[in-house]
């Protein structure tokens, strides 16, 4: 080796993807959680499992599922031979609690390992989005996937008559809509969640927000998401996801 070849590259940290499927799908309605509804012939949750199993950047996949439905996911995993899936575990009562359960499940892992937290309700996550999230984690400790807002976004509140009125119009050019995956060096997201879970006023709608709030000194890098990376939330979103998948031709992941 020549004297100026620099330090050897750091070994690639292990990457675990966690598919968060602990929600009940209240906005979707129906009797079963939306992640079990059929989408292009497979349950919604299977699309995200397939995508992360097919991603060469991902070493291990865990699924956090509504406890009563764990056997259904285990059956999918066994039947389709998703070999990277190591565990199907119970989620928590809120999305934040499910993220915290993910971190508890990874308590044996080192602080330098990486974790990607992904909504099972985003079945169309594309391979290039997973890749750019993991690549960004080579130089950042927290990474979110986001798209610019093409709509004007306003802050709303109650006006003098009680009816809803606009209270503020933030400049659109700086606004982004957050998606998943959101990726973290484990030591960082662990520390953020330790602080968050000790806060009686904790309110969070995503994991990057938890890092921003509790570890403001850690920059949260943004990488490009995709308009097609929709979150199946309301009735009708399944039809939109079906149409997008048809355009793409199959599942998000395609292979195991
Ligand atoms: N206790 C929860 C709540 C949500 N999620 C997951 O977080 C993702 C985004 O949440 P959301 O779309 O809100 O799903 P639900 O909570 O199921 O929907 P709703 O709020 O309409 O009940 C979904 O994959 C959902 O399964 C979770 O793992 N654990
Ligand atoms: C994490 C998220 O998908 C980013 O947009 C979103 O905040 C999840 O919100 P939900 O109410 O749990 O669907």
From TrEMBL:
This protein's UniProt keywords: Isoprene biosynthesis, Nucleotidyltransferase, Transferase
InterPro entries in UniProt: IspD (IPR001228), IspD/TarI (IPR034683), IspD/TarI_cytidylyltransf_bact (IPR050088), Nucleotide-diphossugar_trans (IPR029044)
Any GO MF annotation of the entry: 2-C-methyl-D-erythritol 4-phosphate cytidylyltransferase activity
GO BP: isopentenyl diphosphate biosynthetic process, methylerythritol 4-phosphate pathway
Recorded catalytic activity of this chain's protein: 2-C-methyl-D-erythritol 4-phosphate + CTP + H(+) = 4-CDP-2-C-methyl-D-erythritol + diphosphate
Keyword match Transferase: yes
Pathway assigned to this chain's UniProt record: Isoprenoid biosynthesis; isopentenyl diphosphate biosynthesis via DXP pathway; isopentenyl diphosphate from 1-deoxy-D-xylulose 5-phosphate: step 2/6
PANTHER family per record: 2-C-METHYL-D-ERYTHRITOL 4-PHOSPHATE CYTIDYLYLTRANSFERASE, CHLOROPLASTIC
Function according to Swiss-Prot or TrEMBL: Catalyzes the formation of 4-diphosphocytidyl-2-C-methyl-D-erythritol from CTP and 2-C-methyl-D-erythritol 4-phosphate (MEP).
Protein name (record): 2-C-methyl-D-erythritol 4-phosphate cytidylyltransferase
Name of the coding gene: ispD
């Amino acid at each position: 080796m020549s004297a100026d070849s620099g330090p050897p590259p750091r070994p690639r940290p292990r990457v675990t993807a966690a598919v968060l499927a602990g929600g009940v799908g209240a906005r979707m309605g129906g009797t079963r959680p939306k992640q079990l509804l059929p989408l292009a012939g497979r349950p919604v949750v299977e699309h995200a499992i397939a995508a992360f199993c097919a991603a060469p950047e991902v070493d291990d996949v865990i699924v956090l599922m509504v406890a009563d439905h764990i056997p259904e996911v285990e059956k999918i995993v066994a039947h389709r031979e998703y070999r990277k899936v190591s565990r199907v575990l119970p989620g928590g009562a809120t999305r934040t609690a499910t993220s915290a359960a993910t971190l508890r499940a990874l308590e044996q892992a080192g602080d330098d390992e990486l974790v990607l937290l992904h909504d099972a309700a985003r079945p169309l996550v594309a391979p290039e989005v997973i890749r750019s999230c993991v690549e960004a984690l080579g130089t950042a400790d927290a990474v979110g996937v986001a798209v610019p807002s093409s709509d004007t976004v306003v802050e709303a509140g109650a006006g003098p008559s009680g009816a809803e009125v606009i209270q503020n119009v933030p400049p659109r050019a700086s606004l982004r809509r957050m998606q998943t995956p959101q990726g973290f060096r484990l030591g960082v997201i662990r520390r953020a969640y330790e602080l968050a879970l000790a806060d009686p006023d904790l309110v969070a709608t995503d994991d990057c927000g938890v890092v921003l709030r509790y570890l403001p000194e850690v920059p949260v890098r943004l990488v490009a998401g995709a308009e097609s990376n929709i979150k199946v939330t309301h009735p009708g979103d399944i039809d939109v996801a079906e149409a997008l998948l048809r355009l793409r031709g199959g599942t998000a992941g395609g292979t195991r």
